[in-house]
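Sample 1 of the test manifest.
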Amino acid sequence: MKIHDLIAELREPSKTKIVMLVADGIGGMPLEPGGKTELETARTPNLDKLAAEGVTGMSLPVLPGITPGSGPGHLALFGYDPLEYRIGRGILEALGINFAVTSRDVAVRGNFCTLGIDGKIADRRAGRPSTERCVAMVDKLRGIRLPGVEIFVEPVKEHRFVVVFRADAIGDRVNDTDPQMVGVVPLLAEGADEPSKKTADIVNRFVTAACEVLSADAPTNGITLRGFAKYPKIGTMEEVYGLKAAAIAVYPMYRGLARLVGMNVLDAGQTLGDQIARLQSVWGQYDFFFLHYKYTDSTGEDGNFPAKVEMIEKLDKIIPEIVALGPDVLIVTGDHSTPSKMMAHSFHPVPTILHSKLARTDAVTTYGEASCLFGGLGHFQAQHLMLLAMAHAARLGKYGA
Amino acid sequence: MKIHDLIAELREPSKTKIVMLVADGIGGMPLEPGGKTELETARTPNLDKLAAEGVTGMSLPVLPGITPGSGPGHLALFGYDPLEYRIGRGILEALGINFAVTSRDVAVRGNFCTLGIDGKIADRRAGRPSTERCVAMVDKLRGIRLPGVEIFVEPVKEHRFVVVFRADAIGDRVNDTDPQMVGVVPLLAEGADEPSKKTADIVNRFVTAACEVLSADAPTNGITLRGFAKYPKIGTMEEVYGLKAAAIAVYPMYRGLARLVGMNVLDAGQTLGDQIARLQSVWGQYDFFFLHYKYTDSTGEDGNFPAKVEMIEKLDKIIPEIVALGPDVLIVTGDHSTPSKMMAHSFHPVPTILHSKLARTDAVTTYGEASCLFGGLGHFQAQHLMLLAMAHAARLGKYGA
């Protein structure tokens, strides 16, 4: 039996409220064996209080040893099996620039490249043009019109852009046109099934038109496309859990991921203070609140241990304002670890707090990687966290008589 | 590969003996955060000794956050995936009154209701009649005869009874006739497939006859039926594990669940002392013994913390008598938690002891929710406990060369 079917069977209406605070990449590592992690170094009296009053554990985002991107990391936290629900690169890129993808769309990541007079690729990234030039080139591509399809072209950064093809019955089983090497011509698109053949035909005509439009613009005189993807079929949080869900996230990627599972994506301003103000102002209107905090991840990716410590302490300070609202369940976790030492996402489990009146408390009194190992939730799969949230919010009935 | 197929491949004959003592709802919660649970409050020198000599851990009955009923809770302990093997309400009700269901039966829960002169339901529970009246009304229903089907009607309590239809090739995909509201007439039964259409036809004729028989008996002048269910196809403990299994349980529901998986259900008397005497008297005849103790659950459901503590202490006293028999594996666990504080089954993991010469002992020296968190079995799925039992009883060979 699938978990979502089980939830559909057991869920019960309730007025309880759940807050899931995702500190992106919160898990870390000591710089030296035996040392403290970023989280253990940070002074976090408020998070420690939550850990002491609640139940803790270690979240495994996907599987032991698997390092997740932001997509699978968040899908798992929202209770969607990250190995079942996959989000293609094109869709993730579109979500990342806040493009409102529809079910009729095929999205793809584009790169400007440099083509020689023989049509072969001389530079796969067109000499890394400025983002201004990217915007200007995208503007030219926007002039391309093809019958039977709406085409949206959006700049991302430097040589990167996104194309969205909108038409009925088009598929995403189309190969990348990027050969991932220089000295060869870009590949033709081919479709692996009928809807995808329709897409491939559109794509090839678009690429031909693009090369004409850009012919005088070397080094940005060609394009390659990769990661054709449709919007995945995915039940909304309301359909799966019966939760009216709101996302309070600053960065487009996380807003997009929240929109993907049907959350209402609210204006979150720019700062943690703005996010808390929004949470307070809409408290009565939703059952579930996803708060996303980016800076624990970005400082980790920068390899800046002290900055990550500082960002954790900054997060700690706003915890009392969330607690003051009286959520029935308050979860603090991350979508993955981002140890400063590794300057990247990692596969390490993520220390997690679940604060609730129904929590069976454990002996853990601080929020950290070493302490949460001894928590009452043990090691658990991130995709089960929503089951725990629903249970502790008294929103799941008994299974079987 | 399915676990039962794996076991069939690996199991080895042996004379070892396994005792599984299920203290129903043993897991609890502190009344106040930071306090002790019922189990931690109880003085349990014998259970603590078992914990010290054996290996401990936390059992997850179904999935994190899922609160099981007695059916799924026990099926999991017996090693049957509770999400795969589901027991319908009709069957559970029949098991609960000790009715010997066969594979030809469709069982259903019945309610006496009050019908107005317009045939509409005026009271779904017929004003909660006395159980004596229930018995008298059931006696009238027993007079109903229909061709091609044997019908058994059994009283349960107040307005509740059970009907079992026994015939060849009848199905259970039949809707409830209970509309779950007043002011409307009971629903007609309809079958979703051919065998179930046959059932529905029998059911509709039975209901018509019942209303005639009861027409002068307002307020118990009508019936509704819900939870049509057949006996699930399920391998016996002997087929799956090669274990000759005996159940020593006092309450009908648990006797019925044991019969469901092919255990021999023995006369267990009324008290724990009776159960131990039975265990001693049949010790040489079986490989596996399921002992069920109800009062840790019923006191929890009553919200009576001190009574649950007392029932745990009572259980502790008989442990030496089980140990004296020299079982190769002695497991103490529960089918779920029933915290007095919640007055209900809960989703919290269940502290578990596995006592065996082959146990790799851990540092745990007391039986409790906090201590067993540190046990050598970690957090494990209840449906894997029989694998552990078989392994520690040296009844499973090596997998692969």
